[in-house]
Amino acid sequence: MTTKKWCIRFLCIIIAALLFIMGVNYFYDPYGYFRSQSGDCYVLDENDYLREQKAQHIKHFSDQYDAYLIGGSKAGALRTDKLKELDGYNYYNCWVLSGNFQDYEAYTKYIVEHTNAKKVLLQISTSEIKQFDRESRGAIYETPAILSGSSKTEEVFQFLFKNLKVSFEEMFDSSPSYPCMKTGERNLTKYYNYFNEHKGSEEYYNFLLKKKVDEFYKYLEKGTPDRSSVVSQCIASLKRMKKMCEKKGVEFQIFIGSVFAGQMIGYEGSSFYEFLREVVQVGENVWCFNTFNDVAMNVYNYYDISHYYYEIGDLMIDTMAGKTTSHDGFGILLTPDNVEEEITHRQRELANWKSYYETHGTLPFQGMENEQSLIPKIYG
User: Quick check: 258 and 312 in contact, CB under 8 A?
Assistant: First the structure.
C-alpha cells in the first residue's frame, strides 16, 4: 500500500470515528442539550442540562410570563400558581441545581434584556456563600452560552464530542425520570412517594439524617470558616442584578428561603451575618425564612438534608403575601433597621444549640409526634 493510500484510509477512519461520536451524542443526547433548543422540551430532570433548557424556554416562550423566580434547587419547590398569589403575575420557575450567583446574574441579565418581564424574584438559600460559581462540578452546572455570551458554535461542538461513556450509560439506563413541570417547578413525586411508604420509620429518619447531619456538627464545635471573599463576590453580583432591573424598570425582590436546622449550622457565623447585612442593604425589605423556628427543627418538613417540600414553599408565599397562617413565627421581614437585632437573636439561639449539643450530642430535632411544627398536608 502506498503512503498516499494509507494516509487517505487513515483520514477516512478518523472522519468516520468523529462522525460516529457526533451521531451517538446527538441522537442519544445524554445531557438533553440538543432537545432543549426548541424550548418546549419538558422531559428533562435534574440529571440533565436544565440550565440550557430553562434559558431556551425563556427565549421561546417569554410572552407567557410576567415574572421569573430565580434560585437554587430549593426554589424548585415553589409552585408558580401559588407565586401568582403574591402579585397576580404569571411566573416561570427558573431554579437551577446547585444555585450560585454567577448563574443568578446571568439569568437576570438575559431576562431584563430579552423579555418584557415586570419582576424578578430571587430566592437565596445561604449555601451560595460557599462558592460563587459551580461550573467545575460538570457539564450540567456550566452557565449556557445563551446566557454567558460565549460562543454557541463552540458549545455545540463541545456537546457533540462529549465522552461517549455518558451516552452509552444513557442507552442502558432504565431508572425512572421525574421531569420538571412545564412552568419550571421541580418534580418531587419520588420524594413524596418515598415519604408515604416509609413515614415514621427508622429507615426514613436515617435517610434524612444519618451520616448527613453529622458532617455539620463540626461547625458547632469549631465554628464556620471565613467565607468573606465569596460573600464579597456574591454581594457585588447582587448589586449588579438590582442595577440591571432598575435600569429596565423591572421590580427586583429578594427573599431568603427556608433551611433545615441540620444544614443551618454549616453556615451560621460571621461570614453569613455579614452576608445577611449586605443582602438587606440591597433588598431593603427582605423576607427571611432561614430562622431559628420549630418548622426548621422538624426533619419531616424537608425531603432531604437540603430541600423543603412544596408545602413549606406555600407557607413562605402565604407569609410574604400577608396571609394569616398557623406558623406566624416562621419568617421575619428584615430591614436595615432590624437586621442587627436579628443577628444578635441568632447568635443567642446558636449558643443555645451549642449548649444542647454539648449535653446531648445532637440538636433537638422534632419528629412525627410534633404536630405543631409539621405542615399538615405532608403527612395527611
Answer: yes
What mean pLDDT is predicted for residues 221-227? Answer: 94
Grid cell in block for residue 75? 426554589
The distance in angstroms from the start CA to the end CA of the chain is: 78
Cell of 43: 422531559
In terms of DSSP H, where are the helices of the chain?
3-28, 50-61, 80-87, 101-114, 145-148, 152-160, 164-171, 189-198, 202-209, 214-222, 228-248, 261-264, 270-283, 294-297, 310-320, 339-360, 376-379
Would you state the cell numbers that stand for residue 356, as one nine-digit string?
444542647
Torsion over CA of 233, 100, 134 and 204, rounded to 10 degrees?
Answer: 140
Q: Which of 35, 46, 78 is nearest to 178 (CA)?
A: 46
Of 137, 138, 65, nearest to 107 by C-alpha is: 65
What is the spatial distance between Cα 18 and Cα 16, in angstroms, rounded to a whole number? 5
* DSSP per-residue letters across 339-355: HHHHHHHHHHHHHHHHH
In this predicted model, what pLDDT tens digit does every residue of 80-135 receive, in sequence order?
999 999 999 999 999 999 999 999 999 999 999 999 999 999 999 999 999 999 99
**The whole model's pTM is what?**
0.94
Average confidence (pLDDT) over 168-192? 86
